[in-house]
Each structure stands twice: as C-alpha cells, then as structure tokens.
Write a structure and sequence with these properties.
- By secondary structure, the chain is α+β, with helices and mostly antiparallel strands.
- Helix content is 40%, strand content 16%.
- It has three helices and three strands, in the order αααβββ.
- Strands 1-2-3 form a three-stranded antiparallel sheet, with no helix packed on it.
- The chain is flat and about 60 Å long.
- The mean pLDDT is 92.
Length: 107
C-alpha cells in the first residue's frame, strides 16, 4: 500500500528549517564564514527542493553567485538613480535593487 505525502506539512517544515538556517548563517558570518556559507547553501537547496519561497530579506542577505552571507567588510553598497547596487567583494558580483518610486499626492 502506497502512502501519500502530506506536501503542506513538508513545506511547513521546510519553511521552519530555512528560517533556522538563515538565522544561524547571520550569527556565524562573523566567526566562521565557511559555516555560514554552508548554512545558506542548505537553505537554498531546501527551498528549491520543496518549492518554498525565501522571504525578500532572506534572499537579499547573501550573494547569489558565491552564496556567502553579506557582511560589512565584504560588500559595497552604492545608491544611484533610485537603485541600490550591492557588490560582493568575494566574487565581484553585483546585484541591483529598485527603490520604490515616489508616489504623487495628486487627486
């Protein structure tokens, strides 16, 4: 007899594990950078396997190319024309984030 998987329960557990791994990566990024990178890799792998989205803050807390969590001495932040440009100083990969456009008060 074949048992069905409870996908909602799996996704809930996956979200909890991703949250825990990302918290640990933020803690260990100052002491053991390689361990923090491993936590980010595991969180990314879990999110892809169980098709769970990472939150915006989680996605923006690490480099997409080298998977290292950002920290002040290994990243550069520039603001140009309503864009935030974050450059990883490990791999020289840059990411651009659009700032919210100004809303007008015209009725």
């Amino acid at each position: 007899m074949v048992l069905k998987r409870d996908k909602e329960l799996e996704r809930k557990i996956a979200r909890e594990r991703i949250d825990e791994l990302m918290k640990r990566s933020q803690i260990y990024k100052y002491t053991s950078y390689e361990l923090a990178k491993r936590y980010v890799e595991l969180a990314k792998k879990i999110s892809m396997k169980y098709r769970v989205r990472m939150s915006r803050e989680q996605k923006r807390s690490f480099c997409k190319k080298c998977m290292y969590p950002y920290r002040a001495d290994r990243m550069r932040v520039r603001i140009k024309k309503r864009r935030v440009i974050v450059t990883c100083l490990n791999c020289k990969h840059s990411r651009r984030f659009q700032l919210k456009p100004k809303t007008s008060n015209i009725v």
